[in-house]
Amino acid sequence: MSEFRPVRGMRDLLPKEAQMLRSVEEKARTVAELYGYKEIVTPVVESYDLLSAKAGEEVKSRMFLFKDLGGRDVALRPEFTASVARLVATTLRNEPKPLRLFCVGSVYRYDEPQRGRYREFWQSNYELMGSNRPEADAEILVLTNCLLQQTGLTKYAFKVGHIGVLKGLLSQEKVDGKVQNAVMQLMDKKQYNDAIALLEESGTPQQCISIIRRLVELKGANTLEIVDSIENLVDGYEQSVEAARNLGEILALVSRSGCKIDITVEAGFARGLEYYTGMIFETYAPDLDIALGGGGRYNRLIQLFGGEPAPAVGVAHGIDRIMLGLQMQKTQEESNERKAVTVVPIKDELVSEAFRIAQSLRQAGISAELEVMGRKIVKALEVADKKNAAFVVIVGEKELKENSTIVRDLAKREQQIVSIEKIGEYLKNHS
Asked: What is the longest distance spanned by two Cα atoms in the chain?
């Protein structure tokens, strides 16, 4: 018989991994509630035209693309933003602005599998739509910091830039849009020499190329000083100067918020998705060479899908990567705490009573497993101990006649006779 395995790039999450995934998801929901973001659920499968509209060549080449039975080109979502933009351009178009929307779930990209990078992975996604003001961008940065704190990560940092600085330079020099996008893709991968070579091939003036070379080298943690340096460097390029000032306003707000965030400004920072128009950022953990999350401002995507012009800013957080960061930092140590209760009938004739007792415990909010393998009491106790149960409720004939059971504390190796109506209270008081 052949051995079946998960499809390459997909994987099974075992109970402890699934528990950690759901724990991070719940923290993401808590942060959404704190900041006023309402949860929505969007389809895993969308039309290819929607997903490819402004995704960039890199993402388009890595989509899970197929034809449905109606012959339509559809794809598994590689991210959430296009789906959210579609929803805002249609169903939610008349809702008062700003819209704060949150979603969480699996997304799919045909990347080369490696540590922290899978073809099916999980993201939490926050979008603030309708405001073009710097406080909206600052909110997304502070929100991301809040989520990473909530998860328990202790070491992480932000890399922040503004795509408008580079785009302002290239647009003023009338560099072709496709060349601009290709340059951004290369710079996103830190292939700066290739990006410069492409600009030289396209006839970009040397003055502009020289500025871009210097921007690539311009980075630092003294954020407002770096922003001033960017503004001085791009003097004469009106859109780039405006972008630098906008970045300064955003970072000043973050600074005044009281949040202690480790931020480095990188003037030559770019992201691969084509729809970004303003502030962009990623967050990292030490020893992980992949981003924990990232996002930025995109002001034209809603309009692209037929909606009214609506500025927007958003972020996606990689839940798998946050989990990996927690494991590497040993933030979530494996718990040895005993929690569940196992209910064991001494013999088959007592199964129905044991079944009733187990159900009454669940109704009282106590996790209870019924022994359903027909094991003898000694073996049942051994298995319950291996499964880290806190207590075993032993349903015996003699005790039942007195409307009682034996409750055994597996950690202390002690047991007590407890009346059936008081088992729930006893377990809550002794857990």
From this structure: 95
Q: What is the Cα–Cα distance from 34 to 43, expressed in whole angstroms?
A: 25
CATH topology of domain 341-430: Rossmann fold (3.40.50)
List every span in the chain annotated with CATH 3.40.50.800.
341-430
CB-based contact 65:48 (threshold 8 Å): yes
Order of all β-strands in the sheet with 38-39: 38-39, 99-108, 120-129, 312-318, 293-297, 279-284, 157-162, 263-266, 219-220
Residue with tokens 């060479």: 289
pTM, 2 dp: 0.88
The Cα–Cα gap between 431 and 428 comes to 5
Residue type, 101: L
Burial, 355: exposed, middle or buried (Cβ in 10 Å; 0-12, 13-18, 19+)? Answer: middle
Instruction: Round the CA-based radius of gyration of the chain to a whole number and report it.
Output: 28
Query: What CATH number should be reported for the domain whose range is 15-328?
Result: 3.30.930.10
pLDDT in tens, 180-230: 888 888 898 889 899 999 999 989 899 999 999 999 999 999 999 999 999
Measured in whole angstroms, how far is the alpha carbon of residue 122 from the centre of its chain? Answer: 6
CATH 3.30.930.10 segments of the chain = 15-328
Which has the closest alpha carbon to 124: 144, 142, 103, 109? 103
Task: Check: CB of residue 395 under 8 Å from CB of residue 411.
Answer: no
